Amino acid sequence: MKEKLIAKMKLKNGLTLELYDRSKPVAGDRWLVSFVARIEVAVKPEYFEGEDAPDVPFEAIRAAVGEKATYHHEKTRNFIAKTEKDEVLKGLKERFLDTNLGYLSSPDFPHKLILRQYQQAQMSSLTRQSQ
Question: To pair with 130 at 20 to 30 A between CA atoms, which of 12, 72, 101, 122?
């Protein structure tokens, strides 16, 4: 699906939040309004230093997650009139920022995102092995 960058924000933790419009027409003057937020986080050892360091070696984390971890959040509304689509998209964006900006800007966010994706990769690997 084609997406259009609508905003780029530098966060307090140094990461960049990108906001996209992935809306598309579905029937007549009706639209699927789709809002996407994305942050790419480089998997770096400094995110795993100090008291929050996991019991897992950094190289194991990088092997499971890769060079970068990606945060992806999407909200959609279906069958929206063409005349209302811009306002609906604006509302989705504003609600997302109101409820998530503090968390995404936190200094702990990169560490938590990478660990979550590592844990998901481990669970996926275990599931494949048990089949």
Answer: 72
